[in-house]
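Hi there, hope your week has been kind to you so far. For a while now I've been wondering how a particular protein folds. I'm sending you its amino acid sequence along with the backbone structure tokens. Could you read through the record and tell me how the tokens relate to the sequence? Take your time with it, there's no hurry, and the full record follows here.
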Amino acid sequence: MYFLILLATWASQVCAHTFTKSYAQSLDDFLSKRDLFTSGNNGVITLSIPSNHVLGKAGLQDIGLFSGDNFNKLTQISDMLALAVDESAYGDALYLYELVAYKGYESYIFLDQEGDFFDDIRRYVKSSNGQLTYDLLSLSSTNEKLREFYFKMKNSVSITQVPKIREKAGIICSSSHAAKLENYNYLKSFLAAIQVPDGTGLPHNVCKSGACASWPAIYDFKCAEAANETQIILNACTDVAFSGERRLENKDSASLIFAASNRAITLGCTWALDGTPINSMSNKSKFEKDEL
């Protein structure tokens, strides 16, 4: 086995849209969910986002993702993402970034005025301190569906349904960014079977069959450890579909989070829409705690 590394370099360049038909058609196919498929076996996708880029200022995280079933498709999406950024098509780029985060599963993204994707975009815009606006996202998009979606978001004042969140044995379970139990079981089996070459560490997200295990990039998780942590979350979170996370302590006593969800980064698992950690929210009525 070997690892393929794709580094999508981000740059901010202002120029006219010169996208090819294949880009436009592929983007519309993703948005319309006309061709739901996975493509490719194992491989690593790496996205690096400079903090001084307009999208970096919105809080988009770097992504290191080991895909167990969709590497070829993620490579195509990452290439499109790099092109969108070069063309300053920020609305396209944000959707494509999210599509990478959702490991190329466009079935998890809906252009509705509710749901996880809607909430993700709201967080990014709020976090940008005015650098990223709904007008900018709408006007810079090359696809009519995206233009309309972002335009409607500008006039939306309601917050979508607050996710159901509960704690059990130090593990937080949420209805946000949820995958099904069967997806997590496939992921756990995949983690247990991965053979990593000596001297090669796992990226901080491993995804398989619609579910992801995620942890901070500073921590070097081994395959067996990640499979075990996933099982611990599965033991605590028993809903039909859920995401879950567990706070860990490394040898330097720095707080770490291991998460299982339907995306390759932990945004939205247990964070409020205003960016406040659920654990520090003064309003505890939305946070349930199960006793052992």
